TrEMBL record:
Gene3D superfamilies: Ribonuclease Z/Hydroxyacylglutathione hydrolase-like. It comes from Candidatus Kaiserbacteria bacterium RIFCSPHIGHO2_12_FULL_56_13. InterPro entries: RibonucZ/Hydroxyglut_hydro. Pfam families: Lactamase_B_3 (PF13483). This is Zn-dependent hydrolase.
Length: 220
């Protein structure tokens, strides 16, 4: 399995000939839109920063789109979606928006993506289902999603093998002038700045099992 980051909350996961994408960026977003083919696309929040299904319809690939809570099965990939809340990108007068937390099982591993989550307290249904997480994608940018301290608190409580921070590249607090997001910097400080940085995460089950809450920053 290979995981790459494409800005915002967009992560591409490839395994064999299959490609899965979390929160593809739309051309209507102020973030740079993505352009690649995907077999499965998961959208946590119906917002241009995360709902670019058309942008991952490319070549001979037309993705199976998952846009909300429920149970799904596609090409050997099992997905559970849990209803949660987001305060990200709200329209004027809108109090809150729907967010979906996804648990994805593939290649014997469990990936959990918290999407544009705003509440550090997960619903009981999700808490009970999210067990033995290999990779946890957690938003750390604040401004409608979890702020760094709450993101770290929730991430640690879920006891994943690997924690991947998101919603810091192009979103969240601006950089410090050296290209380092202040949101990411604050999140890493909660852990004592102990993190591996890479532009591509290549992972097998045995690699995940060797980790214990390790933070890996995947740079776009």
């Amino acid at each position: 399995m290979v995981i790459t980051h494409h800005g915002g909350q967009c992560f591409k996961v490839t395994f064999g000939d299959l490609t899965l994408v979390f929160d593809p960026i739309s051309k209507s977003s102020t973030l740079p839109a993505v352009k690649f083919g995907s077999d499965i696309a998961l959208v946590s929040r119906n917002h241009p920063d995360m709902n670019g299904i058309e942008e991952v319809t490319y070549g001979d690939k037309k993705p199976f789109a998952i846009t909300g809570p429920g149970e799904y099965e596609r090409e050997g990939v099992s997905v559970q979606g849990f209803l949660t809340k987001s305060n990200y990108g709200l329209a004027k007068g809108q109090g809150e928006a729907t967010n979906t937390v996804y648990a994805v099982e593939l290649e014997g591993m469990t990936l959990v993506n918290l999407g544009a989550l705003a509440d550090k307290e997960l619903p009981q249904e999700a808490r009970e289902a999210l067990d033995d997480i290999d990779v946890l994608f957690v938003p750390v940018g604040g401004n409608g999603v979890l702020p760094p301290s709450e993101a770290h608190e929730l991430a640690i409580s879920l006891e994943p093998h690997i924690i991947v921070p998101m919603h810091w590249s192009g979103r969240g607090l601006p950089s410090d002038g050296k290209g380092i997001s202040k949101s990411l910097e604050a999140f890493l400080k909660e852990e004592g700045d102990a993190a591996l940085k890479t532009d591509k995460l290549t992972l097998k089950k045995k690699d995940a099992l060797a980790k214990d809450g390790d933070i890996i920053v995947i740079t776009p």
